[in-house]
TrEMBL record:
It catalyses: dCMP + ATP = dCDP + ADP; CMP + ATP = CDP + ADP. It comes from Methylomarinovum tepidoasis. This is Cytidylate kinase. It comes from the Bacteria. The lineage of its organism: Bacteria, Pseudomonadati, Pseudomonadota, Gammaproteobacteria, Methylococcales. Belongs to the cytidylate kinase family. Type 1 subfamily. One of its GO terms (molecular function) is dCMP kinase activity.
Length: 221
């Protein structure tokens, strides 16, 4: 555990993914997109026809599923041998992910899978509970937020760019519903770690956020 970790937590659409990827690249560190793990599980659960209300059954899939992140130009997510990368971004998968992410047994089953990403020279970990639960000893923790309107707008543009047929009002509704569930759940709720620095990205560019975080890093290590 002397491998350094930079945790970047926050609600959907705050810019964590973009910022984390850029920082990992700049530092030459590994990158963990923990949301993709929950989404991959959501996909596997739906694929296997597992009852979403059955916590034990969902947790079994979480332990069984063979998950691989393959890094070529971009990261591909492979579940049980199938490349599911392009299916994970949909609101439908996001909704299922957020539902099953509330199950303590599911979170427990995914804990070691996530910690395995901590390899030299370092890790940038993007999620909801990276700083609070998965890597509580991380030397540098960021909680990235933005206003709900701004987050919905970014998500809208992102999905549209992927060629998906999207509706802004529906996205705002989904986003608020998902945030509420992530915040109010008993197990690993979405809250800043006590030792996290909170950055509001509503009025910042991606580069400004990256620079702010990188500026804090040397002191933290
Ligand atoms: O970040 P992303 O939108 O891909 O995450 C999908 C869902 O997975 C979130 O809404 C959240 O419920 C869940 N999640 C989580 N803990 C994480 C990452 C994601 O509960 N560390």
């Amino acid at each position: 555990t002397d491998v350094p970790v930079l945790t970047i937590d926050g609600p959907s659409g705050a810019g964590k993914g973009t910022v984390s990827r850029l920082i990992a690249k700049r530092l030459g560190w590994h990158f963990l997109d923990s949301g993709a793990i929950y989404r991959a599980l959501a996909w596997a659960v739906r694929r296997r026809g597992v009852d979403l209300d059955d916590e034990d059954a969902v947790a079994r899939v979480a332990s069984d599923m063979k998950l691989e992140f393959v890094c070529n130009d971009a990261v591909r997510v492979i579940v049980d041998g199938e490349d599911v990368t392009d299916r994970l971004a949909t609101e439908d998968v996001g909704r299922i992910a957020s539902k099953i992410a509330a199950y303590p047994k599911v979170r427990q089953a995914l804990l070691e899978k996530q910690r395995a990403f901590r390899r030299p020279p370092g890790l940038v970990a993007d999620g909801r509970d990276m700083g609070t639960v998965v890597f509580p000893d991380a030397p540098c923790k960021v909680f990235l937020t933005a206003s709900a309107e701004e987050r919905a707008r970014r998500r809208f543009l992102q999905l549209k760019a992927q060629g998906l047929d999207v509706n802004l009002d529906q996205i705002i509704k989904d986003l608020e519903e998902r945030d509420r569930r992530d915040r109010e759940r008993k197990e690993s709720p979405l809250v800043p770690a006590g030792d996290a620095v909170v950055i509001d990205s509503s009025n910042l560019t991606v580069d400004e956020v990256v620079e702010r975080i990188l500026a804090r890093l040397p002191q933290a290590l």
